[in-house]
């Protein structure tokens, strides 16, 4: 549970330090107020007083946010934008993601197009951009870290022959609620029935007004299937991210969010992580959601083995004791023992929670029967 001194524990238990010292004496331990207590002693003392209180301590000390060290402004450097593609079904989200990837990822890179880790990075005019390859809505609803969004820029895909549809509106609402800037990609411009003016007209109702009409929303016309307009879209993403002044400290312990994870027959737990701050290294001790371990190997988005991954970089790792969940937060600890303690406590807490959840359900069932 991390370390606590006698007086810190006394505070948490709402007791006097002398009472703790007395209990310790009975347990055969001579202690002073400022002495660090090991886990066993903390557990024993908690048991002496009240079990409920013990749970509270575990809860508090397993919160990963508490272990994130703040960055000094002078340590912050520019980082790539993390982009999510949203829009109504069949308006071309997947085709656009593929098209960007094919035009920008050179086939010569190891693994090339076949590798698929749930996110990828492209370079445009020397500026990197990270695309999340997950359904846009999921990226917004489940992927939050430290209360902040994983996504920096949302691309709203609207088919020029279909216009604004229910999921278009839903996507706008998600992005607005998250205060993420929206770039509108008017897709399927190659189609006979394409009517980009109608799309612009319809979107003004949602306060997405093009610059030509006095608004401040960027619209890009494109054909994902023909690969037309992709370069302009990438330029606009870079433009918007420059305005956002996206920054991170590459020299801190890495933290970020799980994009995707599964159990692999040969490699065990495999997780795709998006590093949001710091740099992740092979060998790092890490807590990922309710799992933990040491980063055994890392593979980048084009299938190459790498030893480190900086801010806004997606990377696939192995070495965790269990499979985490998409949307889980991760944090690297300098101290391997600390990572293990917190990882185990979080795992324990999850087991406790699912147990009490089960009890609740069966109680509810019972009442229903009565
Ligand atoms: P998603 O549901 O938003 O991911 O849409 P998809 O990318 O799966 O595309 C839906 C359909 O629209 C597919 O049949 C695509 O081939 C087609 N499509 C996507 N982009 C374009 C485009 O730019 N032009 C045309 N003509 N068809 C497109
Ligand atoms: Mg799709």
TrEMBL record:
<feature type="region of interest" description="G-domain">
    <location>
        <begin position="81"/>
        <end position="229"/>
    </location>
</feature>
<keyword id="KW-0648">Protein biosynthesis</keyword>
<keyword id="KW-0396">Initiation factor</keyword>
<feature type="binding site">
    <location>
        <begin position="187"/>
        <end position="190"/>
    </location>
    <ligand>
        <name>GTP</name>
    </ligand>
</feature>
<feature type="binding site">
    <location>
        <begin position="133"/>
        <end position="137"/>
    </location>
    <ligand>
        <name>GTP</name>
    </ligand>
</feature>
<dbReference type="GO" id="GO:0003743">
    <property type="term" value="F:translation initiation factor activity"/>
</dbReference>
<dbReference type="GO" id="GO:0005525">
    <property type="term" value="F:GTP binding"/>
</dbReference>
<keyword id="KW-0963">Cytoplasm</keyword>
<protein>
    <recommendedName>
        <fullName>Translation initiation factor IF-2</fullName>
    </recommendedName>
</protein>
<dbReference type="GO" id="GO:0003924">
    <property type="term" value="F:GTPase activity"/>
</dbReference>
<feature type="binding site">
    <location>
        <begin position="87"/>
        <end position="94"/>
    </location>
    <ligand>
        <name>GTP</name>
    </ligand>
</feature>
<dbReference type="GO" id="GO:0005829">
    <property type="term" value="C:cytosol"/>
</dbReference>
<keyword id="KW-0342">GTP-binding</keyword>
<comment type="similarity">
    <text>Belongs to the TRAFAC class translation factor GTPase superfamily. Classic translation factor GTPase family. IF-2 subfamily.</text>
</comment>
<comment type="function">
    <text>One of the essential components for the initiation of protein synthesis. Protects formylmethionyl-tRNA from spontaneous hydrolysis and promotes its binding to the 30S ribosomal subunits. Also involved in the hydrolysis of GTP during the formation of the 70S ribosomal complex.</text>
</comment>
<keyword id="KW-0547">Nucleotide-binding</keyword>
